[in-house]
Amino acid sequence: MKLLRPLVALLGLAMIWTPFAAPAQPAQALPGGLALTPPMGFNNWNSTGCAIDEKMIRDTADLFVSTGLKDAGYEYVNVDDCWAAPQRDPATGRLTAHPQRFPGGIKALADYVHSKGLKFGIYTSAGTQTCAKTMPGALDHEETDAQTFADWGVDYLKYDNCNNQGRPAPERYTRMRDALKKTGRPIVYSLCEWGENKPWEWGADVGHLWRTTGDINDSWQSMLTLFKANVALAPHAGPGHWNDPDMLEVGNGGMTETEYRSHFSLWSVMAAPLLIGTDLRKATPGTLKILSNKEAIAVDQDTLGVQARVLRSDNGHWVLVKPLAGGDIAVALFNESDQTATVGTTAAELGLPKRAGYVLRDLWQHQDAHTAGAISATLPAHGTALYRVKADADWWKAPPAAELGLHLPVVAEGVPGNITPAGQAFTAKVTTTNQGRTPLLAPRLTLTAPDGWQIEALGGTGTPVLTTGRTLTGRWRITPPAAAPPGTAPLSATVTFHTVGHGRVERQADETLTVPAGVPAGVSDLGTIDWAWASNGYGPVERNMSNGGAKGGDGKALTVNGVTYPKGLGTHAPVQLIYYLGGRCTAFATEVGVDDERDPREPGQGTVTAEIWADGAKRADSGLRTWQDPAVPLKADLTGATYLRLVGTIGPDTNRYDRIDWAAPVLTCRS
Q1: Which member of 75, 462, 502, 605 lies 3.0 to 4.6 Å from 399 by CB, making a disulfide possible if both were Cys?
Q2: How distant is the alpha carbon of residue 590 from its chain centre?
Q3: 101-119: string of b/e by CB count within 10 Å (b at 16+)?
Q4: Residue 60, C-beta contacts closer than 8 angstroms, at least 6 positions apart
Q5: pLDDT in tens, 361-384
Q6: C-beta of residue 153 within 8 angstroms of C-beta of residue 119
Q7: pLDDT, tens digit, 9 for 90 and up, residues 456-494
Q8: pLDDT above 80 (res 17)
Q9: What is the CA angle 598-79-218, rounded to 5?
C-alpha cells in the first residue's frame, strides 16, 4: 500500500500516436498459460482494509455466482492484508490464519471458493512485515510461504513492497518468483511494487502483472492520475504480462456514476486487471450494472492483448484506440475537463480500410449504428463513450449514427456548467449530428427537466430531413424553482427520427444537475458551509481536521509548522472547492499551509500553492509553500462574485504529503 506517487515524467510518452506493434509473447519464467488476459476478480482492501473475515470472502464468492459476475468473467476472490496471525508458527515457521478473522483456516476458505468454480488469491509483502504491520512479510521466507500457499490451494498472489529493508526490488520479487515456480502449482503472480523501480522494464520475466503506480483511492483525481501514468506504458503490456494501475473503486461512493463509468471504460481499454474493490454485499444495482458490462469487459479481455494507445489528448479531450482480435477497433472518447465537450476521431485516423460505411457499436448503450466515417460524442464533464468499430460490408443494416449532445453554459472559469442555482434561469442547448450515410427523417429534439422546473423551448427542435454531416440545434430556457432544495436533479435530452429500413429510432443523453446550497448572511466559518462541488487529490475533504487517508474522518488536528488550528478544511492537492455566493459576499480570509501530517522518515515532501478565485479572477495566491513553512494569511475581495473557488496545486515534486490546510476560514456576506 502506498500513497500515490504520480509518474509525471511518463505522461509525455502518451501523447504520441504510433502504429501498433505485434503483442509481446507471454512471459516464460512462470508456468505458461496463466493471465493470458488481464486477471478479473475481487480484492477487499479498498472497501474494508483490515476489517476482513472469512464470512465476507465466502459471501463474495456466493455473490459472484448469484449476481452473474462469474458469468461476466470475474474469477479470483482475493484476500488482502491482515489475514494471518501476528507471529509465525514457532515449530514450522509457517504463516497461520488469524484465529479471530479466519477461524476455519485458509485451506478451508480456498476450498469453499473453489467449490463455486472460482479461484482464490492471497496477499503478503516482500518485506519483514506487511504494509498494515499486522503480520509477518515473506522476505527471507519465500520458499516456506510459497509452499504454504500452494498447499492451501492459492491461485493468485499479490506481493506488496512494504518494510523491504532497502533491498533491491528485482532481487526480492525474483526470489518469490523462483519459490512459486518450485512449488509446481500454477499461481498468478502480481508484483505490487508501486512502479518505483520501473517494473515494466523487468517484470515480464518475473511476474504476470505489475503495479505501475501507487495506491488508488476513491476520488476522481486519484483515478485520473493513475490513468495518466499507466496509459503511457502501453508498449510493455501483453498476454501474460500486464500493466496494473491498481484495483477498481467502482461503487465505493467517492465518485459520480459518470466518473465510475469512465473509470471502468479506461481500465478496460488499457487492458488493466479488473479487480472489484467494493463490498459486494452493499453494491447497488447501478454498481453491478457497471461492473457486469460484458461488452466493456470483452474489450479488456480481448485475446490480442494490446493496451490502448493515445491518439490525442488535447485540452483533456482524449481519444484512446485499442485494436481487437478479428480486426475491430475499440475507441474510448474521454472528457477529462469540467465542462461538456465534443470529442471525436475518424475511421481513416484509426487506420481502418476505406469503406462507404462502418458499424459503430456503443458499448454502454448497447446499440448499433452506422457511420460514414466520423466517430464522435458530446460528453458531460468527466464522461467517456466506449465504441467498437467495424469495417463491415453490411453497415447499411444499422441505422445512421445520430450524435446527441446536451450542452450546458459555461458560467465562470473552472466552474462546472451543471451547477444550477435555485431560481436562476439558464439556457441549455441540444444538438444532433447525422454521422451516417443515409438521412435522418423528421428528427425531433426534446428536453425533459425535473418536476416543478420551468422549461421553455426557444426554437430549433425539429427539421424535415438531416443529411450526412448536418447538425440540428435546439435551445431551451430552464429555471429551477426558487425554493428548489440543494441536491442533484436529472436533465434528459432525446432525439427521435425515422430512417429508411429501420423505422423509428430514439437516442438519449442525460446530465445530472447540482442545485447548490446558499451561504449564510454575516460572518461565517467556511468549514460549516456546504460546498457546491469538490475535487480532492486524496480521500475526502475534511472539516476541522487534516486530510488523513483515503477514508473519511481519519485525519488529525489541523497543524502547520507546529501551530494547531481548531477550525478549517483539510484537503490534499490537487484540490478545488467551489461555493455558490450569489453575489452576496464581500470578503474571505484564511491561513494556508502544508499540514504537519507526514511520515517523519520521509522528510522533504510537501510542496503546494493555494489560490483564492472569485469567478474567473484570481484574488489571492500563497506562492510556493513547503512543509517547513508557517501558514500564510490570505485575503480576497469577493464583491459581486457568483462563485468562490479554493484551488490547491502540487509543487515541483510529487503530490506525496501535499495536504493543504485552509485554517480559520472566514466568509463575510450580506443578507
Answers
A1: 502
A2: 31
A3: bbeeebeebbebbeeeebb
A4: 42, 44, 77, 280, 281
A5: 999 999 999 999 999 999 999 999
A6: no
A7: 999 999 999 999 999 999 999 999 999 999 999 999 999
A8: no
A9: 45
Residues labelled catalytic: 160, 215
Pairing status of strand 471-479 against strand 76-78: unpaired
Q: Which residues of 662-671 are buried (b: 16+ CB within 10 A; e: fewer)?
A: bbbbebbbee
Q: How confident is the model at residue 128 (pLDDT cuts 50, 70, 90)?
A: very high
Which pLDDT band, with edges at 50, 70 and 90, does 14 fall under? very low
Give the side-chain half-sphere CA count within 13 A for 581: 29
How much is the pLDDT for 29?
54
Strands of 324-434, DSSP E: 329-335, 341-346, 358-362, 367-371, 374-379, 384-390, 402-407, 426-434
**What's the maximum distance between 2 C-alpha atoms anywhere in the chain?**
85
| pLDDT for the residue numbered 604 | 65
Q: Are 46 and 216 in contact (CB under 8 A)?
A: yes
Task: Identify the weakest region by mean pLDDT among 170-174, 516-520, 535-539.
Answer: 535-539
146 vs 152: CA distance, rounded Å: 10
Confidence of residue 30 (pLDDT cuts 50, 70, 90): low
Q: What are phi and psi of 86, to 5 degrees?
A: -65, -25
Half-sphere exposure of 671 (CA within 13 A, CB side): 0
pLDDT score at 411: 85
Q: Cα–Cα distances in Å, from 442 out to 438, 472, 504, 664?
A: 13, 11, 10, 59
Q: What is the pLDDT of residue 12?
A: 37
Helix axes 54-66, 106-115, angle to 10 degrees: 10
**Helix then strand then coil, % of the chain, to nearest 5:** 20, 35, 45
Cα(401)–Cα(411) distance, rounded to whole angstroms? 31
Distance from C-alpha of 322 to C-alpha of 343, rounded to nearest angstrom: 17
Average pLDDT over residues 346-356: 96
How far apart, in Å, are the Cα atoms of 517 and each of 133, 281, 424, 454, 543?
A: 43, 33, 13, 20, 17
- Residue 462 is given by DSSP the state B
Residue found by looking up cell 448503450 in the block: 365
**What does each C-alpha distance from 640 to 255, 525, 586, 666 come to in angstroms?**
32, 20, 7, 17
The residue whose grid cell reads 431560481 is 423
